Amino acid sequence: MRKGTCLGGKRMAAQRQCKVLNVAEKNDAARELSKVMSRGRFNRREGFSKFNKIYEFDFNILGKECKMVMTSVSGHLLSLDFAPAYKNWSRTLEKEIRGCQHLVLWTDGDREGENIAEEIVHVCTQVKKTVQIHRARFSEITPQSIMRACASLGRLNQNVSDAVKVRQEVDLRIGCAFTRFQTMRLKQVFSSVLSDQLISYGPCQFPTLGFVVERYKQVQAFIPESFHKIKVVHETTEGRVEFNWKRVRVFNHTVCLILYQMCLEASRKMRINAKETMRIAEKLYTQGFISYPRTETNMFPESFDLTAIVRDQTPHPNWGGFASQLLARGVTPRQGNKTDNAHPPIHPTKYTNSLQGNEQRIYEYVVRHFLACCSQNAEGHETSVEIEVAGEGFSAQGLAITARNYLDVFPYDKWSDKTMPVYQENSTFQPSSIEMVEGETSPPSLLQEADLIALMEKHGIGTDATHAEHIETIKNRNYVGVQSDGHFVPGELGMGLVEGYDAMGYELAKPRLRAELENDLKLLDEALSKYFGPPQQVTQQVRTASSTLSGATVQTGLRASCVPREMTACTTCHLTLLHDLQFPSIRVTQNNASSSTTTGSSSGGRGRRQRGGVSPQPRDEGKRWWVVVVVRGEDREDGGGGMVVGMVMSGEVEEEGEECLLVTHQLHSPPLNQIQSRQFHKCSKRGDGGCNFFLWMDQDPHPAPLSSSLPPPPSPSPSSSVHTSGYGSMNTSCSGSSRSGPGFLSAPKRGSGRGRRGRGGGRGTAATSGGGAGMGVVCNCGQDAVMRTVQKEGPNKGRQFCTCSKPREDQCGFFEWADDVPTSNITPGLFFYLVYKKNMVW
Amino acid sequence: QQSVCDWLEARKGVKVQQNWVEACLEWIEQEEGGGVPMASLREMVYGQLLHADLRDVVVQPCIPASVPQQQTTTITGHFIVQVDSLVDVGAAAYAQLQKIKGQSLDDVDTKKNFEPKPTRLLLLSLTDGVTDFQAMEYHPIPQLTTDLTPGAKLVLRGTIGCRLGTLLLSGDQVELLGGGVESLAGINRQSRVLARALNDESLAGEGGTTESGPPPTTGSSSAGPPARSTGNEQLQEDN
């Protein structure tokens, strides 16, 4: 509407012809779809993004002739960080939708595609509310499939899209929280080694790391064993074939020796040695069956009547047929190069079918050889041959024959094409050698990238699009290294992390957790529609359950350190504090205040709750901390047994004095934008120096047990509701953004491996300076970032952003938009997920 | 009593110690009271035999004792033997042990591998009660698996080739009678057999180093199938 004239023109055009905006997931798809629908007759023009072209053509859809505009996006529109160039397609969409009455979504038919489609709708409807939305479902870009899609345009599947949102949100939360925890914790303990390194955690990158570590450990633990095997070799003038034993190998010498002996004996029985062969041949010669055998001549004299000799052999039951065919095709002898000028090449001189034993075998050989050399050449390709020696199977790979020709009659011959002779089925031969070879088992090889991707695929870690990214992340974090031969080895840090969590009993690096989540999401797709029906019902469920939950948590104190384990679980809400981690200042110590509230004051009704933001004492001078460990799995008596799926740690250390420390015990009850928290004071001294002071903040100073804070009122921006206490003298320009306060908890975006949000200590605005500013945004070099405003002409002019405070040359490249407000709202899907996994509570 | 002995020899091909049968019958009488018909009495004694260690029971070997010394020979007939342990020598013991422990290599074959899959080749440690033999699975014996109870009894029949003291068995020559020997259950547990093959008993996992027998059915008196203990007590008394 801003450019009235231009738009007016377009409208006029639109009235004349129906105009449809089509959006595919990638430019490739847009191009191919356009090609098919327009039969190659489309116009291409540029959009705002050079990666996403616009294709225009006319097409009959929705029952009328329409002007089609086909463009594309590049994955998720609302993902965390996109280089500005990519953002341009959303501007393309905004522009193109204006002239269109219909929007057809051609994103891929998977869950991700459904979600992207929803994002496209979101962008487009903001510009044009009246646009009609259609979802095209196709499995392949072929004319049939596309025509079918056009004829059956449907609606978006909200459930599927929600499931994706759930995953994005869960990923982000887990990733951010855990990265933050890990980084801060480990930096403190190993400050000299780790210095500025970010120690990220991601639900995909960690299992990926796990694969590398797992393989490495298996290689380390491997015990070699010796084995024996039998190798059969057949050497002929035309090549050497090595046959592999069907049993492959045997891990027992005696057993192998027995089988070997049997093979040797069997092969001895078969042999007709050269001397014997010649003796028999001489005999056949004297009987007039074959020509003189002691000759090396291989050239037939020109006068030689080959056809007559071939014809003689036609009555034979075994090769007579071949002889007849040969006559029909014509005799084409292969010309040799040797002659003694006394004898012709060996050939049959008389037909017989009454010989026995070895005489028969030799006569047969001579005949077959003769017929073969009069025949055409064979042609072939790769094959495998299996043989049996004394019942032991062996096999070899080589060439097979496509046109057998002479081979039909000459089973003895080997494929002359170097690699492998040809073996006739059921033929026998004398192996040149049979050996028993000793060997040793070797460990599995370390993983290469292809193996790693295959493993990720197998276990459902990440998607095609993100596999490489996850691998890149664990490389960048120095969790793994790549050897020059492409094999992955875990680094000390990666190894340490995986082993550390394993030792604690959390199999974070095992693919199971991730796979379960993916599986749950599938169930979610189905279950949502099956059990809950329309979204309104879901929302209702959300409300009911959320009030139930918050009711429960109000009465829940920290059942602190009652459990002599490394984990202390909150009985009701499943929050678990890890206190053996020696997390800075957080040693959850038993205290009368906490333990007595555990179940004692459990009669909480609505009246006992208080609105969020209790004790809004300004504590902007502190560094903040949270501790939230989410455990899912069985709720066992001993507080263990659950699976940590996410952990958020934060808290506040008061700088003035060392009297007490404020820790927030949070329960993220759904909907997610409402986070319940409870705060307590405790001594901030670390280790043994600390006293046992512990007090719920909302019990302070009087023991009147208004035990917890209520979820703050839902606010339009989910992010801003997190604050339950007045921590922030926040800079206003940041307060609405996702990163104000514990912003990393609430940004419902996709977790990026980059983890730039997880860095450093407190989060705050650039405006706050010094002394660990409450909510400092920290740049990559660990310093408080500064807020600036875009001065440059362009679409972003006037927008505020945070960047590194150092002079331009020294900047670390950190960049964040200040107004990068997440757009997602409450996610019914996510809630269902939580309910579905009853034991899992955020 | 004598008739039970004869029946075992005639029908099952085992010549057992008189006093073992005696003890067995005594025990059955205690358990069941008198008046058990002969047919079921025989079967009960036979049932006890399957759970006894043949070494404690058999008086006369059924397989020629010379077999272990001979290069090649064949034996023909009907032989009851006891499988003390068995192991698949067609696969690496390490890999098998990993599999038992649930730590198998998680792998995806990215390179097309044409190597044929190794076939199982069981190597059995047998005894006929007097002589110990080895036997190998020359042709597949689907009746047998690596989780066979140590001490289970087999019938071997037909003409069986022997080489280097090892019987070469095929499926059609083997009948699995079942049973087991309690004292072997621990020592010859599959994981320990494999660990022994790797020369490191500690790899067997839990209970690998101690003499942990099977669940506590010490079977001394009335409860359980006390066949073996009956035999043992008898033996001890004899000794």
From TrEMBL, chain A:
Residues 722-740 have a biased composition (Polar residues). GO terms for biological process: DNA recombination; DNA repair; DNA topological change. Keywords: DNA-binding, Isomerase, Metal-binding, Topoisomerase, Zinc, Zinc-finger. GO terms for molecular function: DNA binding; DNA topoisomerase type I (single strand cut, ATP-independent) activity; zinc ion binding. PROSITE patterns: TOPO_IA_1, TOPO_IA_2, TOPRIM, ZF_GRF. It catalyses: ATP-independent breakage of single-stranded DNA, followed by passage and rejoining. Residues 751-760 have a biased composition (Basic residues). Residues 589-620, 703-769 are annotated as: Disordered. Residues 779-821 form the GRF-type domain. The keyword DNA-binding applies. InterPro entries: Topo_IA, Topo_IA_2, Topo_IA_AS, Topo_IA_cen, Topo_IA_cen_sub1, Topo_IA_cen_sub3, Topo_IA_core_domain, Topo_IA_DNA-bd_dom. Residues 157-546 form the Topo IA-type catalytic domain. Residues 19-141 form the Toprim domain. It is an enzyme of class 5 (isomerase). The keyword Zinc applies. Its EC number is 5.6.2.1. Introduces a single-strand break via transesterification at a target site in duplex DNA. Releases the supercoiling and torsional tension of DNA introduced during the DNA replication and transcription by transiently cleaving and rejoining one strand of the DNA duplex. The scissile phosphodiester is attacked by the catalytic tyrosine of the enzyme, resulting in the formation of a DNA-(5'-phosphotyrosyl)-enzyme intermediate and the expulsion of a 3'-OH DNA strand. Belongs to the type IA topoisomerase family. This is DNA topoisomerase.
UniProtKB/TrEMBL annotation, chain B:
Residues 63-191 form the RecQ mediated genome instability protein 1 OB-fold domain. Gene3D superfamilies: RecQ-mediated genome instability protein 1, N-terminal domain, RecQ-mediated genome instability protein Rmi1, C-terminal domain. Residues 8-57 form the RMI1 N-terminal domain. Residues 218-227 have a biased composition (Low complexity). Pfam families: RMI1_N_C, RMI1_N_N. Transmembrane segments: none annotated. Residues 199-239 are annotated as: Disordered. This is RecQ-mediated genome instability protein 1. It comes from Geodia barretti.
